[in-house]
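Reminder: ligand-aware prediction takes two inputs, not one.
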Amino acid sequence: MSDTLARATRILQDVFGYPEFRGQQADIVTHVAAGGDALVLMPTGGGKSLCYQVPALLRDGVGVVVSPLIALMQDQVAALHEAGVRAEFLNSTQDWQQVQAIERRARAGELDLLYMAPERLLAERGIALLDQLEVALFAIDEAHCVSQWGHDFRQEYLQLAVLAERYPAVPRIALTATADAATRREMIQRLHLQDARTFVESFDRPNIRYRIAEKDSPRRQLLHFIREEHAGESGIVYCLSRKSVEETAEMLVKEGIDALAYHAGFTATERKERQNRFIEDDGVVMVATIAFGMGIDKPDVRFVAHLDLPKSVEGYYQETGRAGRDGQPAEAWMVYGLADVVQQRRLIEQSEAEEPFKRAANAKLDAMLGLCETVRCRRQYLLGYFDQVGEPCGNCDNCLAPPAQHDGTEAAQKLLSCIYRCAKYSGFAFGAQHIIDVLRGKRTEKVLERGHDSVSTFGIGAEVDETQWRAVLRQLVTLRLVAIDHDHWNVLRLTDGSREVLTGARRLTLRQAAAARPADRRRRKTAGTHPVAAPGSPQEEAVFQALRAWRREVAREHGVPAYTVLHDTSLREIARRLPDSAALLGSVAGIGATRLVRYGDAIVQVVRAARPAPIG
Ligand code: ADP
Ligand code: ZN
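Here is what comes back for the chain with zinc ion:
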């Protein structure tokens, strides 16, 4: 073991309380500690922070961390204080005196880490401060914010190139969880990282179980999911519209679930309050638009649910990635249906954007739909999207209960003919509900009024129920074998591809519709070949809950989020091992020297009080 690695490992253990580095952390840490530049691509929850925190502690001077997210900055600093690290931040929330005090400490060499908002750092005052400091390294977090094509673009990030010019001797490490090749090139170019070593960590998140089910009544499905599988746990529910956010939150609250709504329509203060409640409490369900989430670093989010289809696989991956950052079992759950496909396509078609942008947006949506419709392992599909390979995972719905497939050629032909016949008969086209009614031979008012009970396709699909027909139609739309005309009341039209199916030149294998497939009912805690240990006995659970209650108290006293005191992972391990001395506690992951001194005795007492009496 190199000398640097030995010292780094000692810091990891003593300060952060972890026995060993994960994945490429050790390589990254030693590379940066030796003065090298690095570009680190690691999924959310992969452990990016330690990649710059440890080298900052190893090197002389203060590590300067550029982070665009104020909330995240504050939580990180709070967590570092808990671990006994001298860290501070500079951002717009502080008054003059606070700023001066921190700057003074930085100049006096009393800080190990200094977090700065980019506009702070780039201001004259920021640069003047940096000029006076011995800087150990620059860490540029969320480095994809330099990408002008990305959804998180930050103007100020473009100016961070100045760091390379002004402080050429200081190592720089840029980190992100966005991995596609185009963004990577942009980061290298704009941040002047041509000589940096690139580290790409696997994007697999093995503890997240992916599930995508067909939508029938989404709110009822959601309620069932939360009640049956995640009662009392933290989660995020994503909806597309503000209205749907509010209605869903209201429904959950009415059903006795501790839910909050969050979207850009609330005032900054309201948003802040809600976000804090979510972060600090143990079991809040946040119902939100995608305005919520970036910079939410809460490790114990047990599920992320989507009631509406994300626009892209990147979006889906980023949003679901907020689940299970602590490595414990977590779920990414989504329901989707035909209406989602129609809505997303319409949003693209009716946007003001230029043609090339629309084409790109449609391609992204197609990839997302592919993830929904695939009958293969969802994780393999996701990793494939990021150019990575994986084996079938055994921890997604498709692996746990392989979906039924059927030869859908005949059904597709019936549906396509019905669209054609009705339009020909009336001289104009019709929407999904009407076409399905005609197929099923239903004599609705509209069918009779239009005389469609006399077209040749009337009733040819009576043996198949409505859910199945919708599933067939959805897949045809996904495959672009049916088009939906958004400018004319969403009527259905044939496409260039339809002909091949109608003539039998192209055969189709479709996913069988099923309202509730077995995997959906199976309990997370009993199913699967998942590597992460399942929660154990009732006794263990009792100790765990007692520890959580203790942690809540401490967090309240210190005014910090509960997880910064100690993670669920550590509490679980304590509950499992029942250490009855502070010395034994020291070997629990997440308990470093500072926490041991601070909390050791208290924890041992909680364990003693809560654990079952010995038998005999
Ligand atoms: P990211 O910024 O990549 O999303 P974090 O740096 O917040 O991830 O780390 C995610 C979680 O993993 C944190 O709870 C962190 O304490 C934990 N972690 C990181 N590295 C290790 C390690 N080597 N051993 C154990 N836990 C780790
Ligand atoms: Zn799988």
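The chain has four domains: 3-200, 208-403, 406-511, 538-610. The chain is about 45% helix and 10% strand. We will return to this case in the review session.
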